[in-house]
Write a structure and sequence with these properties.
The complex is a heterodimer.
Chain A (H helix, E strand, L loop, with lengths): L1 H17 L1 H4 L31 H30 L3 H8 L3 H11 L6 H15 L2 H15 L2 H8 L4 H37 L11 H5 L5 H6 L5 H17 L1
Chain B lengths: L4 E9 L2 E11 L4 E5 L6 H8 L8 E9 L2 E2 L5 H7 L4 E4 L3 H4 L6 H10 L9 H6 L6 H4 L8 H13 L5 E5 L7 H18 L2 E6 L2 H5 L4 E6 L2 E6 L1 H6 L4 H8 L7
Parallel strand pairs in B: 3-8, 3-9, 6-7, 7-8
Antiparallel strand pairs in B: 1-2, 1-4, 4-5, 9-10
Classes of the chains: A mainly alpha, B alpha/beta.
Chain lengths: 248, 253
């Protein structure tokens, strides 16, 4: 029952993201200069931010960015992990790298006029590339186990060609691990983007993402004035819980 | 006429030699039992004959001939056409030797297409190993089979392409005594029906002797005695063979 409810919520959120232009009353970057910090209600369902932008519209568009690109980054990580898992020294090296500092350096190296769309792609591409080593370690251990398996030896003793063994025998095992890793990485990347956005390293303004919307939480007095500022955090937590429930 | 199998090999894991110039011949239609203690190198010998030992970290030197064809110089791709076609293999445990995720049908089709074109027909094959050939059975996953069914399926894979020689590596060790007797009978029937030469590897001297024409005793990586089962049981010569025969269960009365 809880699983069904979680799936229904995720589908609803995904539909909102998909039909963002139809659902959001305004563009995410439209400024109502005469109405900064507007209270919730009336024209603005969740009020406006300090630049007079409609919070609800920005949340709808932010959902689109966060929940589309996190799975894409997770897919990149899993694919890289599959391809590179045999290089265990490289995996160990990548696991030992201080990625958050590398993120800061890489973002600092980018020109100041990097466009918002470039920043989206860059953020999630970097996450995808940075995150391959964890699943690679698991693939590596699984492949070692598969190499020693009796069924692989039996398949070889039957004279099956290597490509058929890989496709028919080995891939179903790796696919199950890949799906499990993908499920783990999607929520991790949504949270990572949110964390990066909070410290200004995520998706660049004016594009909204859950991360940069959460940056508003740095002003506690604003939260007491308009509790809807917590909406991105609430939605993030809701999606995380639902993803956990669905993948459990 | 060439022997079905002829070999003289040494095998090592790293610097440790586990088979010391082990030699043997199996005539067409002959069943040779290879008996010895656990760890004496029996399974190593089976993998070495299939030239699969490198997948377990071992290496082999010497000569292996099947129907007069020397295997030791063959490339890996050439060996693929030998495995399953000239040399069949029945491994020890269906629990580990069958990929539990795959359906019986898939396993049969893949084993078939390794050496044959077109769609295989498995009814007669399954019947010969006393397995049902219906859709329900074919659609079962390997993990759903009983140990006895799994072992029979492995035997079906081993004999599918009518190999010149069948290597059976402890194929009854995971079975209860009744299923064990049925599987031994099955091997004997397959030998009589198809004339398949067999190397039957086991630590259970008594059971393998019941179907074999000759027994080789493997001890510490060497064949220390070889002869017909009657002679091995009645007049063992080597001290290890004597201890093996003396250790066999006897009736208490």
């Amino acid at each position: 029952m809880r699983r069904k409810l979680a799936s229904a919520i995720l589908i609803l959120v995904a539909l909102c993201a998909l039909f963002a232009p139809a659902i959001a009353p305004f563009d995410y970057d439209r400024q109502f200069r005469e109405s900064p910090h507007a209270a919730a209600g009336g024209q603005f369902l969740m009020g406006t931010d300090n630049l007079g932008r409609d919070r609800f519209s920005r949340l709808v568009y932010a959902t689109r960015i966060s929940i589309v690109l996190a799975p894409a980054a997770a897919a990149v990580s899993v694919l890289l992990a599959l391809m590179l898992s045999r290089f265990s020294s490289l995996t160990t090296l990548c696991l030992s790298l201080p990625w958050i500092f590398l993120f800061i350096i890489m973002r600092a190296l980018l020109p100041l006029d990097t466009g918002p769309f470039a920043s989206i792609l860059l953020t999630f591409a970097l996450m995808g590339v940075a995150g391959w080593a964890w699943p690679a370690r698991i693939f590596n251990a699984s492949i070692r186990q598969i190499r020693q398996s009796g069924w692989l030896l039996q398949a070889r003793a039957s004279g099956m060609p290597s490509r058929r063994i890989a496709l028919i025998h080995v891939w179903p095992h790796l696919r199950a691990i890949a799906v499990a890793q993908f499920r783990v990485l999607v929520p991790a990347y949504i949270l990572s983007e949110a964390s990066l956005g909070l410290i200004g390293l995520g998706v660049a303004e004016p594009l909204p993402s859950w991360g940069n919307l959460l940056a508003e939480l740095q002003r506690p007095q604003a939260v007491s004035a308009n509790p809807w500022i917590l909406a991105p955090l609430g939605l993030l937590m809701l999606v995380m819980i639902c993803l956990e429930e669905v993948s459990a | 006429m060439n022997n079905a199998l002829e070999f003289r090999i040494s095998a090592s894991y790293g610097k440790t030699e586990v088979l010391h110039s082990v030699a043997g011949t199996i005539a067409p239609g002959e069943i040779v039992a290879l008996a010895g203690l656990s760890g004496s190198g029996k399974s190593t010998l089976a993998l070495a004959l299939l030239r699969l030992l490198h997948y377990r970290g071992g290496s082999v030197t010497g000569s292996i001939t099947v129907e007069g064809r020397e295997l030791t110089g063959l490339s890996e791709s050439a060996m693929r056409s030998v495995r399953g076609k000239l040399i069949g293999y029945v491994p020890q445990s269906p629990g580990t030797a069958l990929n539990e995720r795959l359906k019986v049908r898939t396993l049969l089709e893949e084993t078939w297409s390794a050496h044959a074109e077109g769609a295989g027909s498995f009814g007669a094959l399954l019947e010969s190993v006393q397995l049902p050939g219906d859709q329900v059975f074919l659609n079962k996953r390997a993990g759903e089979l009983s140990t006895g069914q799994g072992q029979r399926l492995l035997i079906a894979f081993g004999i599918m392409h009518k190999p010149a020689v069948l290597l059976a590596d402890e194929p009854t060790s995971a079975l209860d005594v009744i299923t064990q007797a049925a599987v031994l009978k099955l091997f004997a029937e397959l030998n009589q029906k198809n004339g398949t030469a067999m190397l039957f590897i086991s630590h259970d001297l008594l059971s393998v002797a019941s179907i074999s024409h000759r027994v080789d005793i493997l001890h510490e990586g060497k064949i220390v005695e070889s002869g017909p089962p009657g002679k091995i049981f009645s007049a063992p010569e080597h001290p290890f063979t004597r201890s093996l025969v003396d250790a066999m269960p006897r009736r208490m009365d």
